[in-house]
Amino acid sequence: MGAFSCPALERCLELHPDAVAAALIGAGLAQADELAALLPLYDLLIPVLETVLWDSALDPGRLEQYHALFAEMEGHIAAAGDDPRHSLVVVVPVADRPQQLRTCLLSLAGAARAFQYGAGGVQSTGKVVAVIADDSRAPESIVENRAIAAEITRSGIETHYFGQQEQLAELERLADSDRQALRNIIGAAMPSAFSHKGASIMRNITCLMLSRMAQQDDRLLFLFVDSDEAFHADTGNGSERFTTNYFYHIDRIFRQSPVEVLTGKVVGDPPVSPAVMAGTLLEDVLALLTEMAALMANAPCSFHRVSDNHDAAAYHDMATLFGFKHSRAPHRYQCTLQGAHDHAACLSDLAEKLNHFFDGEHPTRVTPYAHVDVQRSVTPARTVYTGNYVLSPAALRYFIPFAGLQLRMAGPVLGRLVQASSGNAFVSANLPLLHRRTVAETGGSEFRPGVDRSAALVDLSGEFERQFFGDVMLFTVIELIAQGYPEQLPTRAAMQAQVLATEATMRAHYAEVRQHVLSRLDALEVFLSGPGHWWHNDARLRTLFERFCGSLHANFGTDARAWQLINDEACRATRHTAIVDALASYCLDREAWERVLQG
What we know:
CATH architecture of the largest domain: Alpha-Beta Complex
Distance between the termini: 53 Å
CATH topology of the largest domain: Spore Coat Polysaccharide Biosynthesis Protein SpsA, Chain A
CATH class of the largest domain: Alpha Beta
Number of helices: 20
Largest sheet: 8 strands, mixed
Number of strands: 11
Strand order of the largest sheet: 3-2-1-4-9-6-10-8
Number of domains: 3
CATH superfamily of the largest domain: Spore Coat Polysaccharide Biosynthesis Protein SpsA, Chain A
Structural class: alpha/beta
Oligomer: single chain
Helix content: 40-55%
Shape: globular
């Protein structure tokens, strides 16, 4: 027997034998007399145990073994002295979402305790630090976010509050000429109105501070997450079970290969705007009502069979534009009610959720987790998920481009530009975070820019316009990169022509989706009004559906403000000019950014 006591490793190997791993680990344990020989044995067993864990439907005993294995490994690393692994700085940009922020950071603290990364096998959080990048406007949100920073620090994770005063102090470090040169990256907001600058500008300003941190410690990695996410991938029953050691896997990916940018994805709620997923929802609701019409209202609910439909980006009305194979077939609704209940209760529960759609939930298409060995899942990437990506210190040179436009699709645009310049240093891995668009108590998001709930019907026009022109920017960038951009800069006239051509293509796709939505919406309203159906006399149910249908008409119908915006000639001309200006200045922006970071 080697020099180390490894009861957790030996127990896991005994309970979950893998012939190849068992032979290697058994021989290795007998000879391991130094840490360098021992740790690879844990690396061999961890993927075996992760597969067993998910195959067991997250059996509590298996989960406990998984956590114990990491605690034992951390104890050995601590006993050996200097820990060569990366520390993780988890950055959470937030604007007026204190409740969601607190949930996110409590989840981070729970994951750090569960896996004890860098903590030496004791109940502290070791090599994990948090940064709250606060873009809030409401004074009460700012007060609460500061209190959250203190609370999370008390829980064991060192948490830095990076609020308006701290951000302005960071910008004061810049020469006036540099600040002017970076205006497309960090914005030009006045100190008196230094809030709601947008997530992209907020991330870029934060990167200035992170760059100073990296100058003090080159073993830092920077993980950006959104405030509506949690540090596990269990979408099953709403419980918080820490099923993936993000810290271990991220560190290992960066140490094993010359990675600079790593992106994960999300499970749970979709990462896209409701502006581009109303059609898929209507297909599913129509299919559900068609099936419900042939069932008894008081019969036991039959909508709990596990779906076998796992289309990638199945929620997206235009998934094929992004290279995904997309079935037009509806998804059968998966009821989430627990305990005994009937079809009437199932339909009532769905009707309650329909209005959540306008805050970004998709009530019929939650993205499930599909287990694949994390290390084997590493593959070249082309899209950054801005709610789940990691930068090395060198990769801080990749700011969020065109931030001043405040368009959606910033992550895919960034990803294409990184892909064009980074070679194999940009990868993705199967490390999704759980995405929850809404707060359980209210069924809505605390704050969502571009979504107006001040009237009876939800107005998506602000977000819709940002989504449309964000798609125009993305597909323009894709076409320009194919022509050598940004290293080969086209003439302004050529860029203008490409923007107009792309806009025409996107307008046709959006118009097609709009017609599909209105067709399905008409069919839904006809079906709902049919007097022969058992739900016809349920006034509450009818009200919920009518409110949902009314908001869809308000955003896709003849007089929809969203469509007035994207068709308005003045709005279009302003956007065209701004997009071309941003594309033309990107190389200068990049040079200014790198000059400032090099300091």
